Amino acid sequence: MRWENLADDTTANGALFGADAVVTRTFDTPEFRGITFHEVRARSILNRVPGASRMPFEWTVNPYRGCSHACVYCFARKTHSYLDLDTGLGFDSQIVVKVNAPELLRRQLASSRWQGQHVAMGTNVDCYQRAEGRYALMPGIIEALSKRANPFSILTKGTLILRDLGLLERAARMTEVGVSVSVGFVDEELWRTVEPGTPAPRRRLDVVRTLSERGIGCGVLMAPVIPFLGDRPEQLRATVRAVAEAGATSVTPLVLHLRPGAREWFMAWLEREHPALVPRYARMYADGAYAPTWYQRRITRQVHEFAREYGIGPDRPGAARRITPSAPAHAPGGDPAEPTQLTLL
Fold first, then answer.
1. For residues 119 and 83, is the Cβ–Cβ distance under 8 A?
2. Residue 218: φ, ψ to 5°
């Protein structure tokens, strides 16, 4: 494994940790069987997002690399190749754990160079994946941000976030806190095949409901909308309705995108599970990682129409800060605005 001279994909600060700082562990418990953890002591934890990025935030914290959620479409798979690790099954089962993340974050936030910018979490891999149940890095991270009244947001598919509900409530009294839950669909058959390591979609919506009942505004990132498998109008309507019933402050659709690394893994899965769709995907993604603009616009328009029907929208005044596009749902003049295709999932 190539640990030396490892540079994070979002920073140019050089090596994040050396080979002598890595401890590899396996645990023979049902929830961790088949998973290997590489415990590292990171040298940096605040990562600056490249200026060319289309993200609506500038800084991130990622306590883990790799993700046991095993989503077949995950864009972050490519990052495992920087360690000479496999981007397929290896990404799902070889998890890098930055065990010193909370203490390192406390030190970096205390630096005179830090200006208190918003910090986004869960934008690369899920910070509430199964590993967090053992390593419990997020409580220390949330406390470090809260102590400095530093605004932050969390995007997750994990129900484990409810463990930290009290910390989030206290943080929200001191700074701006946003939580978004990712639910691209409520179709359980689709969920079992494309997101096998995640909690069921309706369990994630229970998280939205609980957070909302406790006064923490929670948006839903409806991502990804998967062409030809999860994009029928009745599927979109069912998802938006469930999101509304859960009390979400907003719903923001994002169509599946297939970057290098994720594309190969997803297309291999598609060939096994839905071979008839392979030519359609080849045409739809012929020009790159993103679906055509006309298709993105269609999905965005349909989801927004259903959202208005059920009384929610892409955003509304007074909602907590979330990881969502900053553009309005409609451009001046009443025409639908071109959707902003982010790269979170």
1. no
2. -135, 120
320 HSE (CA, 13 A, CB side): 29
Q: Which of 101, 69, 59, 94 is nearest to 79 (CA)?
A: 94
The residue among 196, 191, 193, 194 whose CA lies nearest residue 205 is 191
Report whether 135 contacts 335 (CB < 8 A).
no
Cis status, amide bond into 224, omega within 30 of 0: yes
DSSP H or E segment with residue 91:
helix 89-93
Residue with tokens 């923490």: 216
State how far the Cα of 191 lies from the Cα of 189, in Å rounded to an integer.
5
| Confidence (pTM) | 0.85
Q: Which helix (H) or strand (E) holds 218?
A: strand 218-225
Give pLDDT tens digits for 39-91: 999 999 999 987 655 667 789 999 999 999 999 999 999 989 888 888 999 99
